[in-house]
Write a structure and sequence with these properties.
6-stranded antiparallel barrel; Trypsin-16; Peptidase_S1_PA_chymotrypsin; 2 domains; Trypsin_dom; mainly beta; Thrombin, subunit H; serine-type endopeptidase activity; serine protease; 262 residues; 6-stranded antiparallel β-barrel; 3 helices; single chain; globular
Length: 262
């Protein structure tokens, strides 16, 4: 069985059982992930800061991409430090574009990862199919199979240069709260959990997609449902621990995004 790892979410460390007190990155694991070709998720891109890979992103228009807010928080006023690489399953892609502006959702909280979303305005047009966004205010039924993708560390702690994927099942926000009673989860997030695979660690900003076109063996881009935001530090498979995602059907975030899309 193919067994690799993927760094895709920011870990949250709880100082006590009642509040989220600290956020830090940790080494990742997606167990039983496998490669996915870029034609399945052509809008996927990797974010480099000062020539170092840091996060994933998703292209939503000719000069606009989105990522997790915490990925670009500390260099948000230095957009020239960021570069997007796209159009390939490999992070070494020669298709590259500089970031002209970084915009983080105004209500973003670095303590709770509430509204964990940022828009990257690009210097030049990009020539890939853009991500298909969900209908505003749409919901994901618990039990729905989702596809999380991204780049990250392998089991020998070297960074994967190949795009990887894993299947997760959506769970209700209440179930997510029950599993994590001290976490301040909000309605602009959704949760999913693996069965025999899981996500954890620090490579956020990548996408989680519907499974619609994978089932139909179609090359039409799948619907981008969310941006990978956070996860549990234990990387536990038994019992599996949920990961959290910024919900792109959220009305507030979509209205804000619309003002920034070029």
């Amino acid at each position: 069985m193919f067994k690799t790892s993927l760094l895709i979410v920011l870990s949250i460390i709880l100082a006590d059982n009642s509040a989220q007190a600290d956020i830090s990155a940790s080494l990742p694991r997606i167990i039983n992930g496998k490669p996915i070709t870029i034609d399945r998720v052509p809008a996927q891109a990797s974010v480099f800061r000062l020539n170092t890979f840091i996060c994933g992103a998703i292209i939503i228009s000719r000069r606009t991409a989105i990522t997790a807010g915490h990925c670009v928080l500390f260099y948000q006023y230095r957009p020239e430090a960021y570069q997007l690489r796209y159009g390939s399953s490999l992070t070494s892609s020669e298709k590259r574009v500089q970031v002209a502006r970084v915009s983080i959702f105004p209500a973003y909280s670095h303590t709770t990862l509430n509204y964990d979303l940022a828009v990257l305005t690009l210097e030049d047009d990009v020539d890939v199919p853009f991500a298909r966004l969900p209908e505003i205010d749409s919901t994901i039924d618990p039990g729905t199979t989702l596809t999380a993708v991204g780049w990250g560390l392998t089991e020998n702690s070297s960074t994967s240069t190949e795009l990887l994927m894993t299947r997760l099942k959506a769970i209700s926000l209440q179930e997510c709260r029950d599993v994590n009673p001290g976490w301040l989860l909000s309605d602009n997030m959704f949760c999913a959990v693996g069965a025999g695979s899981t996500t954890c660690g620090g490579d956020s900003g990548n996408g989680i997609y519907s499974l619609e076109n994978s089932l139909k063996d179609s090359l039409k881009p799948e619907v981008l449902l969310g941006v990978i935001s956070w996860g549990d530090t234990s990387c536990s498979i038994i019992p599996a621990r949920p990961a959290g995602f910024a919900d792109l059907a959220n009305r507030e975030m979509r209205q804000w995004m619309k003002k920034l899309v070029i």
